[in-house]
Amino acid sequence: MSLAALAHTVAEFARARDVTLARIPIGWPGTACRFEHPLDYLGKDGGGAVGTGPGHTIGSALALKGSGRLVVGVVGDGDFLMGVNALWTAAHLELPVILIVANNGGYYNDVRHQERVAAERGRPIENKWIGQELGQPTPDIVALARAQGFDGEGPVRARIDLVAALDRAEACFLSGGQYVIDVRSAAIESRFWERRSIPLRRSNWPTAIGRSTARSNKRGHDRLHRIVAASFEAP
Q: Which CATH class is domain 3-194?
């Protein structure tokens, strides 16, 4: 199943319910982001870290417990595996929550990085999966979730099966339970790096990063200056 198909299936599911998307992965299409309420989508961490998705989802479930909203987090398999212990907290605290794992069998964002570096340095692009592929053996997402106290199902490969799985997940949520769905998702060919205004070739990527860091540092310094100045002006 493509990530787009997964996204639009989840969007259809959410359209008829009060769903809070606590997390969505890189590559989620904008056409599946019709958010109309402040709690429809809670955003993402700013640092691009891997492993924070489960914790963010569980924290959202804690904050919204009893609110009448269905808390759903969609995370990648790499994100899930790095933060799977957060699921125990949800089971321990009896927090209703649904976690959908967009499972493409690897740390695909890093695969794209390694592909670009290989092309820049004249190395074999076919080696881009080394150290990033999650196989041999393939992690059992549902078994790992069950070990933390969750219920769940998968692997789900077809859109019609995902629709049925979401219905079962909703029933589990409404009974106070925790549910994970392992969805096998095709890797997405991201064009993020090609869209950058400054091409990150070996000759200029330190300059590009340096400019970005300098801008960020200046904004942080200006903000700190305003905070300190305001503290002196306060009565």
A: alpha beta
Domain extent listing, the chain:
3-194, 198-233
Distance separating alpha carbons of residues 146 and 79, to the nearest angstrom: 17
Place of tokens 């997964």: 6
Q: Give 230's Cβ-side CA count (13 Å radius).
A: 6
Which CA distances in Å does 64 have to 86, 96, 137?
Answer: 17, 9, 36
Residues 6 or more apart whose CB falls under 8 angstroms from that of 51 comprise 78, 79, 82, 83
For the question of whether the overall pTM of this predicted structure is more than 0.85, the answer is no
Q: Can you tell me the distance from the alpha carbon of 229 to that of 227, in angstroms, rounded to the nearest whole number?
A: 5
Q: Are 129 and 210 contacting, i.e. CB atoms less than 8 angstroms apart?
A: no
Report pLDDT digits (tens) over 188-227. 444 333 333 333 344 444 444 444 444 555 565 566 556 5
Q: Which of 11, 2, 118, 97 is nearest to 55 (CA)?
A: 97
CA distance 218 to 52: 27
Contacts of 95 (CB under 8 A, 6+ apart): 58, 61, 62, 65, 89, 178
Q: 145, 152 in Cβ contact below 8 A?
A: yes
Backbone dihedral angles phi then psi of residue 100, each to the nearest 5 degrees: -110, 125
